[in-house]
Specification:
The protein is mainly beta. Helix content is about 10%, strand content about 45%. It contains 2 helices and 18 strands. Pfam families: LolA_like (PF17131).
Length: about 240
């Protein structure tokens, strides 16, 4: 299935944005959700330790990640429309950070706090199809509409027809290809198809990669007060 751009450029973009929204649905839910993830770093083929997180996400995209083990246990990461914050246990308050700050290995904060790309990027479908991971794929070129986005440009390849994400490339403002990601085949969880594994590759230091495994996810109503940087020091 191929997508041709309309003469006025608007219909094609509308179609591409709809495809992007469908692709987002494989990685993020439309309701308040609690998700357990595990990040494993790999260097030169050597697998490192695993770090586990509990991630709370609201329907509006606000996200709170809690570190569950390892030397960083208890650290909290918050992302809202106002920005990103980081809290270290036994300190008085959270500090503001950039979404490019590394969470673990090749995974940066925005990789788990900015999963609704359709709300912050404008998509354009490249005419025709290509082959990615042995599947017919459509390329979407994403340009940031939010100046706070870590990546001003993303290339995303999705399965033609189903919009399942296959691969992404992330570019810096300079145009440099900084990192890439490969998405696993979706599986059915609680009646919906979801991606359970994403592998991020460092495109500068190519021997480095990190794997995010989604261990479990469930709908859970989350009080809005938990997504306030002024309350991150509570319960510590």
């Amino acid at each position: 299935m191929s997508f041709a751009q309309a003469d006025d450029g608007k219909s094609g973009d509308t179609n591409a944005n709809a495809i992007l929204a469908r692709a987002d649905a494989y990685r993020s839910a439309a309701s308040d959700t609690k998700t357990r993830i595990e990040i494993t770093n790999v260097t030169d083929g050597q697998v490192g330790d695993d770090t586990k997180y509990v991630v709370y996400t609201r329907a509006n995209g606000d996200t709170l990640a809690l570190t569950q083990n390892g030397e960083n246990q208890g650290q909290k990461y918050l992302a809202t429309t106002r920005g990103h914050w980081f809290y270290v246990p036994n300190t008085h308050s959270a500090v503001r950070i950039n979404g490019m700050q590394r969470l673990q290995g090749e995974v940066v904060i925005s990789d788990i706090t900015r999963t609704h790309w359709a709300t912050s990027y404008r998509a354009v479908a490249v005419p025709g199809t290509t082959t990615v991971a042995d599947q017919s794929a459509t390329e979407l070129d994403l340009n940031a509409t939010d100046p706070d986005n870590v990546y001003p440009k993303i290339k995303l390849w999705v399965v033609s027809g189903s919009a399942v994400p296959l691969r992404a490339q992330f570019f810096l403002a300079s145009g440099l290809l900084f990192r890439s990601a490969d998405f696993s085949t979706p599986v059915v969880v609680n009646g919906r198809q979801v991606i359970r594994k994403i592998t991020y590759h460092n495109e500068i230091e190519k021997q480095r990669s990190s794997v995010i495994n989604i261990l479990g996810s469930q709908a859970q109503s989350i009080p809005a007060g938990r997504f306030n940087p002024d309350t991150l020091a509570d319960d510590n």
